[in-house]
Amino acid sequence: MSATTTGTTAPSTRFSGAQHRLLAFASLIILMVVFSLASPNFLQTSNVITILQATSVNGVLAIAATLVIITGGIDLSVGTLMTFCAVIAGVVLTFWGMPIGLGVLAAILAGALSGTISGTFVAKLKIPPFIATLGMMLILKGLSLVISGTRPIYFNDTPGFTQISQGSIIGAVVPALPIPNGVLILFLVAIAASFILERTILGRFTFALGSNEEAVRLSGVNTDRWKIAVYALAGGICGIAGLLIASRLNSAQPALGQGYELDAIAAVVIGGTSLSGGRGTIVGTLIGALIMSVLANGLRILSVAQEWQTVVTGSIIILAVYTDILRRRRL
Question: What whole-number distance in Å separates Cα of residue 60 and Cα of residue 130?
């Protein structure tokens, strides 16, 4: 395997990545200070919980997107896949009346299966990730509407489902910390994803595929199999996001989802993951997701029009990508 994959540039890459994460974290603190000074409502407990709940969904999606982007790919279907998994959970729990555990399992398996299909398109059929996942996004959007009959599926007859996201295990133990379960799930997913990336063979090959896939293939590794595995894992994580948003809304909204992929990818890029692949961390992605949530919430509190919020978000994405370009030039 070449030096660019394993060797001499690793220390400078890690240092540059650490700098980027430090800059992102500093930006998060600055945003929070500015919004708290601009509005006394920003740091109220109820608003902080709202920010954390919003981050739980986008953060889980961003973790899924991080895994794919590190391989040098992209997944535009994460938002609609989240919705599709929520609809599958709705069918299993509401239409079929199955136990909640089976609904959770069905959502995650549906996500993993969809991710496997996307990965097969990319790895076996050699369809560019942008096109493969764009097509998958449209397929999943259509299937969500067909399966649900274009109507929302409500979980009113599924006791405990809303507790997945809105309940608070921590709050029950420590009433002063009513942290929603959705946030706890986000951090558990983040810890698991970090472990996979840093401590497992799948994680090593995820970085290797993004650094120099051809070198990995020439060394005798079945790159197609590992790439499909990454997409499948990302799809399963999208299934968790689908459960979180369905639990938060107490319904599966088949028309929801498109647009979430942009926020997820923005969080990944802001957190320092390189769009060219080979570099990225889950911690950076979490910081990026928090920045997106704080920014959206703060602008909303300040009554900034939705269209201008979109302009600001787009500008931040461009700035983050340009920062990544400058970083790669230095390396």
Answer: 20
d(Cα 106, Cα 128) in Å, to the nearest integer?
28
Cα 182-321-127 angle, rounded to 5 deg: 80
Given the candidates 1.10.3470, 3.30.160, 1.20.58, 3.40.50, the CATH classification of the domain at 48-330 is 1.10.3470
Residue 275 CB: number of other CB atoms within 10 A? 19
What per-residue string of b and e applies to 61-76 under the rule 16 or more CB within 10 Å gives b?
bbbbbbbbbbbbbbbb
Question: What integer is the mean pLDDT of 44-73?
Answer: 94
Backbone angles phi, psi at 251, to 5 degrees: -165, 155
150 to each of 70, 77, 273, 309, how far by Cα in Å?
Answer: 35, 19, 36, 29
**Domain locations along the chain:** 48-330
What number is the average pLDDT over the span 160-187? Answer: 92
Query: What is the DSSP secondary structure assignment for residue 322, as one 8-state letter?
Result: H
